[in-house]
Amino acid sequence: MTVTQGTGPAELLARLRAGDAGLWPEGNVAPDRLGWVTMPERMLSEAADLTAWAGSIDASKIVLLGMGGSSLGPEVLRAAVGSDRLVVLDTTEPETIASVDTDDAFFLVSSKSGTTLEVMALLAHFRERVPDGNRYAAITDPGTPLAEMAADFGFNRLFLNPPDIGGRYSVLSYFGLVPASLCGIDVAGLCEGALGVDGAAAVELGLAAARAAQEGRDKLTVVVPEPFAAFGLWVEQLVAESTGKQGKGCVPVPTTEVEMGDDRFLVALELDDPLELGAEFYRWEIAVAMAGHALGVDPFNEPDVAVAKARTAKVLASLPLPEVESGDPAGVSEWLTGEVTPGDYVAVLGFLPYKHGDALEHVRRGLRDGLGGCAVTAGYGPRYLHSTGQLHKGGPDAVVAVQLVPRTSAPSLPIPSHPYDFNTLFAAQAIGDYQTLLERGRRVRRFAVDDPKEVR
């Protein structure tokens, strides 16, 4: 079906603010996903309460147990203010989980559905280590199993988020602003910044990005100032999961340095103050929703994310884990040279401990330069399964995926009340994603490393 067209940015913005689901193809989920549009005003009225509550939590460490886009917003805010109080734990990798210091820690459990596999496994693990319910708070939708658990276990507080907001559009709701308040960030200032956004200009940005993609410049290269590099993670998942479907999409390439190419659409951000992130979050939410309008896709669904989840469940239901061949990382560049063609992009998918962030970026830049400036992205698994994985599977058939997995297994880390440990879950997620990419006909190869710097 052809999407109803507006006559210009101002009209499109008015239709968005009015909740007009006719902006997107028939059958879209927008009627249940547009709550984010009014969140800045709503949360501004709750800023004082959030700040007061955050001031009552005197723990030296806040551990956020989450997964997907709803957890990346807090990571952006944490990094922007240089907070070492907040730890965003959105992985099932056992070494990273085991490294979390629980002494004097407060846990924030974040899950829209209240059933997210990774979050529930993390909660089971930490409740065994720290059973005091007063050292937990939860953010979830009304009526979820997590909401019931928070009541049963006597959590310090339960934040019920409006249910008409998807994870990747939730940064200006409780999912992003509760962690922000615990980092000492001025929540009201973030909301006020969002309310001051030039909405028509944001619409124009989204339309321009979509038009560029339709013209072959689909590598949306977002240049972020170094102090705000983490913002690239958030905008990447928003763009990828919202537009990458039905063989279409903008391919986000976050970077801190200018990257040029015939297939690039470059957007350079100017950020000087962490409070400016409120406006930047909202600007991109509007822009990406409008990019979906122009591309003729539903920016609020994620049909291909569920596929990898189902494949992981299938792997876990038929243990032991299957053997999957892994190549020598010294041969990555040689393999890519034979696979990458003009217009392609490379996705480095690292199922590795979080300590390798700098090394992954080093690999990304090295492969980019070695391939003559080809667009290269890098992300951690299983985090990307809930976001950019949508693009890799459902977007343009232009991805060449390099999956990096551990050569040496971490010590076993049990998951209470589960028939498998974190090691098995982590490996099953990597295998499930690899198998799904193969089933979709994507070009993908696994390589086993102890350190990403082994990639050549």
* CATH topological fold name of the largest domain: Rossmann fold
Going by helix content, strand content and strand pairing, the class is alpha/beta
Biggest pleated sheet = 5 strands, parallel
How far apart lie the N and C ends? 46 Å
Query: Radius of gyration, rounded?
Result: 21 Å
Residue ranges: pLDDT <50 for 5 or more in a row? none
The ordered H/E elements are HHHEHEHEHEHEHHHEHEEHHHEHEHEHE
Number of helices: 17
Number of strands: 12
Please list the strands of the largest sheet in the order they lie side by side.
2-1-3-4-5
Describe this structure in words.
The chain is built from 17 helices and twelve strands. It is an alpha/beta fold. A five-stranded parallel β-sheet has the order 2-1-3-4-5, with helices on both faces. It has a four-stranded parallel β-sheet with strand order 10-9-11-12, sandwiched between helices. α6 (117-129) links the parallel β3 (105-110) and β4. The chain is globular, with a radius of gyration of 21 Å.
List the helices and strands and how they pair.
Blueprint: H1 9-17, H2 39-44, H3 47-56, E1 61-65, H4 69-81, E2 86-89, H5 94-98, E3 105-110, H6 117-129, E4 136-140, H7 145-152, E5 157-160, H8 174-182, H9 187-195, H10 199-214, E6 219-223, H11 231-243, E7 251-255, E8 264-268, H12 277-295, H13 305-317, H14 332-339, E9 345-350, H15 357-370, E10 375-380, H16 389-394, E11 399-406, H17 422-439, E12 443-449
Parallel strand pairs: 1-2, 1-3, 3-4, 4-5, 6-7, 6-8, 9-10, 9-11, 11-12
Helix pairs in contact: 1-10, 3-8, 4-8, 4-11, 9-12, 10-12, 11-12, 13-17
